[in-house]
Every structure is written in C-alpha cells, then in structure tokens.
Design brief:
Blueprint: H1 13-17, H2 32-54, H3 62-89, H4 96-109, H5 113-137, H6 139-147, E1 152-156, E2 159-163, E3 173-176, E4 186-188, E5 192-196, H7 198-201, E6 207-210, E7 214-215, E8 220-221, E9 226-230, H8 238-249, H9 255-280, H10 291-305, H11 308-327, E10 330-332, H12 335-342, E11 346-349, E12 356-367, H13 372-383, H14 389-394, E13 406-412, E14 416-421, E15 424-429, H15 431-436, E16 451-457, E17 460-471, H16 475-484, E18 489-493, H17 498-508, E19 512-514, H18 519-531, E20 537-541, H19 547-552, E21 555-559, H20 565-570, E22 573-575, H21 582-616, H22 622-641
Parallel strand pairs: 11-18, 11-20, 18-19, 20-21, 21-22
Antiparallel strand pairs: 1-2, 1-3, 3-9, 4-7, 4-9, 5-6, 5-8, 10-22, 12-17, 13-14, 14-15, 15-16, 16-17
Length: 649
Amino acid sequence: MKKKKVNLRDLKPNSEVQHTHNDGHNHGNGSAFKTYVPAIISFTMLIIGIGLDYFDVSFFKDWIRIAWYGIAYLPVGFPVVKEGWISIKKGDVFTEFFLMSIATIGAFVIGEYPEGVAVMLFYAVGELFQSAAVNRAKGNIKALLDVRPKEANVFREGDYKSVSPEVVNIGEKIQIRVGEKIPLDGILLSEKASLNTAALTGESKPDSIQKEAKVYAGSINLESVIEVEVTNKFEDSSIARILDLVQNATARKSKTELFIRQFARIYTPIVVFLAIGVTFIPYFFVDDYVFRDWLYRALIFLVISCPCALVISIPLGYFGGLGAASKNGILFKGASFLDAMTKINTLVMDKTGTVTKGVFKIKEVKAIGWNETEFMQYLMAMEEQSTHPIAKAILEYKAEGEDFEAQDVSEVAGKGLKGIVNGKTVLVGNKALMTANNINVPTETESIVESIVLVAIDNQFAGFVVIADELKEDAKKTITNLHKVGIKNIMMLSGDKDSITQQVAKELNIENAKGGLLPEDKLNEVEILKKNPVNKVAFIGDGINDAPVLAASNVGIAMGGLGSDVAIETADVIIQTDQPSKVVRAIKISRSTRKIVWQNIILAFGVKVIVLILGAGGLATMWEAVFADVGVALLAILNAVRLQRMSWD
C-alpha cells in the first residue's frame, strides 16, 4: 500500500501551475505578458478592422480586408488549429480544437471574417481565464513547494555545516535559526520553541512546544535558535508526504468528472454529424434553400456544441475543493473522496488520539495518612524506573523538595513494581498487587473507571493516583456540529476499557460506544454497519490498529499529526491538525464542491440546449454561439473559483 515517494528535486513550481486541457495550451511558462500578447494583437486588429468596416473605408476591401482579418486570426487561431491537427494524427478527431478550427475557418469561407476572428479570440481568452483560475486553485500547492527547505545546518566534525537536507541522516543534530524553515522531521533538543506550522496544518496561530516534542519539516522557527535531532529522512518527511498526497489527488477523478469526459467524447461527434445534417438535409425539404445560410447555421451549431464549459469547469471545481481543503489543513487523496464524503451518514470513531489527546495526565491524587508531596515523592522515585506512559504522566508532577531515590526495584509481571525508598518498602501497581501482599484497598477505588495507580508504603495503603486521557478541546463541539450537518449515527469503538470508553462517550453525548475491542473486532463492527446499503460509513482513527478499519470503510479519515504512518497511508482523508472538528469542515467543503459542480453542469447544459435550438432555427448568430460556449465556460470557471473564497466555520 506504500506509495512511490516524491523526489522533491523533480518538482518545479512551474510544473505545478501549468494546465493542459486535452493536450492543449500550456499557459504556465514564460511571463504573464508574453502569454497575453497573441490575444492583445488579435483583439487590436479585430477592433480596427470592425471600425474600418463600420466607416466603409474605401481601401479596406477585397484581398486587403481578407489579409487583415487573416493576420488577426493567426495569433490566436494557429495554436488551436495546430493542436487540432496533432490530435487528429493521434486518432482523436472530435476535440474542441477541431470544432473551433472548422467553425472559424468555415466562417472565413463564407465571408464572415470578423466573426471567425471573434470566435477564436474569445475561445483563446477563455483558455487564458481558465489557466488563471487553475493557477489560483493550485496556489496552495505552489505555497507548499515554496516551503520546501533548501538547506540544513547539520552538526558534523565539531561544527555546524550547511548541506542539502537530502544528505542528512537519522540521528544527526541540526540547528535552525530564527526565521528559518525546519528542514527535516525530528525531536526538539532545545528547552522550548515557537513554530509557525501554517504550511502543514492550515493554522496560522504559532505553536509553542517543549523539549522532546516532535517537530515537522516545513515549520518556521519564530523565536530563538533551536536544535533538533532528525528522526526521518528527507523523502519521508511530513512536507514530502503532504506534497505526495496533494499532487496525487488530482489523478484520482470523481465519478462525475469521469462521466463528463466520457460523455463529451460521445456527444461531440454526434453534434458534428448533426451539423453536417443541418447543412445538407434542408436541401431536400426547403424550397428556397441557400447553401451559405445553412452552412452558417451549422457553424453556429458547431461552436455551441463545444463541451468546454463542462470539460474545464468540472475538474476545476473539484480541484478548487481539494485546494480549499488543503488550505484548511485537510488533505483529500482524490476528487473521488470529495464525492464520497458528501454521501456519508454514519461516522465511526476511535477514542484515544482521535477525540482524546492520547496523552495521560494526573486527574486526582489521594494520599491517605501522608502529606501529598511526600507521598508523590515516594511514588515518583519508583516510577522513574519505568518506561510506561502512566509512569511518564506521574513524573510530570511538580513536587517540592529533594528527589527520593529508589533501590532494589523489581517488576511484578502484570501487577506493578516493588522496591525500597528511604528504607521503606514501596508497592506501586494495581489491585492484584495489593491483594497479593495482603494490603487492604478502600472500596472507593472500585468505582473509579479511569486508570488508577495504587500505592502501599511499609505494608500500609498510602493512597492512589487517578490517571486519565484528556478530551481534545474541540471534541464536544465536533459531535454537536456533526448532528447539525445531518450525521445522526455516530459510534465510538475503542481498544481501551469499556468503562472508560462509555464514560468518554457519555461526556461527548455519543449513544453508541463499545470498548475493549481488538482491531478485528472494530473491523467486524464496521462490516456489520456496511451490510445495510443505506449506511455510508466514515471511520476516523490514528493508530496502526485502525488501518484495517480505515481501509474497509467508505471513507477512511486519519489524524495526520499524531497518527501512525500506516494509518495515514491507508486513509482517504488526512486531518493535518489532529482536530476532530475538521471532519465537519471536510464534510462542508465536500458538499460545497459538489453543489458548485452541479450548478456548472446545469448551467452549461441549459444554455447550450437553448442556443442549439435557436441556432438550428436560424435565430442565433455567431455572437450567441460565442456566449453559449466561451461565455458559459467563463461563468462556470468564476463559479468554481468561489470555493477559494468560501468560509466553512
């Protein structure tokens, strides 16, 4: 399931802002002025020509007039005719380039020179607008590319040396000065740091972290010089992973997008043959048949039939959605998952690391017959000998006075620790450890559902510490907002104790929750939900054990910050900020994208059908045809660009 890694040296910003439409024009290269020069020349000559026609200037006749409009046509027409010819040689005849070439050359043949130039000019301008819209939609990707760190200051041979991040090894120490980008993922060696992680998470607020916290490539150091120990190679860094995901996202088309492209390939040749019919069939039924008039109608028919508005605006709509999502710290692995997210009506979530922080904290300290500080000094002396996450939580307690030292510490398998502190025998562990040593434990501990550490000193029960995982700040708001957007069926599945799972579910107002589950149990629960075809299931998790469920669900959503690499590789959607509330935003962005795509489809089809009928009946001119083609395409593009300006708070 591992994807091919992106080689960042091969990714150039210009390659990301180019747009190719059916092997058509590329507008990403060169300066903006050079791109617009052909259209400016054609427009200037067209206006002058129309002016000379209007005032009936004597010399502007015959071959001079034809040559003038011919020269005006070439800057915008030649590239299109060339592309049409290249497509024909490849066996792809019925492209928009072919349609535009036939329609405009046909206009010249029947003497409608200004209209021939105008149609091609407006088509070229439409392509330029399209290119600008694509560039805008791809702005977030370009921003990511600009964030790529160019160098790393690595500690070698007693000094810091500037090298390419790609040659830095895991375990080496790097230094990041104020304002510099962190070049590689790692662990903070300095006491603290303030980082701007906007390129990775979409959050503009500085992130303050402490020693030994994880830091990610692409973050910007804001305050003081810091040192970091590298934990990932450059090609495996967070910024490389994000680039890989976003770049590959455009390759995974939505069903709507694929359908429109297939439809256009069938629809276009049908219209070409209809246009031929419009030209010749009336000869057999119309008394005053004039070839030139019916050819003009057929040319209008061809211009209108060009499926530009659909083929351009629909992919652009989906790309706009992908760009808007990445700007908000949400990475969809393809447009197909934007579509899938709109259909979700059931959300299944993991507990630890998803709605909770996945970090144990002391919730309560209860000392019996001892001063709390002294009690904690005995406990901390013992826990210093353990690497368990609960021990780490206890050691964060701030106790005044000198530290106690434990001796002869031994682990009692499955029960806890036994040792000597200040000459006293200390037991630290669960109820089984206390029972084995004939220590009476107060009944009040039995009603505590969270993790509890019991302590006995010199064979007397001395107290207990309650350890709990904290809820994320936005966890409650997430459940409330999920209900508001219509996700009524919410379920929590956890490998943690059922009692703890039920308590967390109650706090979050989740009615359906199950704890004590193995990975295969979670998978079975999701498979049961999916057996009902009405249920479209999304699963959100972060651990290695969540990978099977992420793969099995209709949409798998992984926490990208704390989440395991396996979960992130398996998931369809990545939440970069580890905030569950971003799931609600992902749903809203998906729905907005789909709404805009369908608006464009209805707009394009509606206008085309009306003008096709008018054109066939001789009631529409080339100017109406231009509006039906290029005008509608521009309107659809502007509609799609709205996604970049929307807010989903």
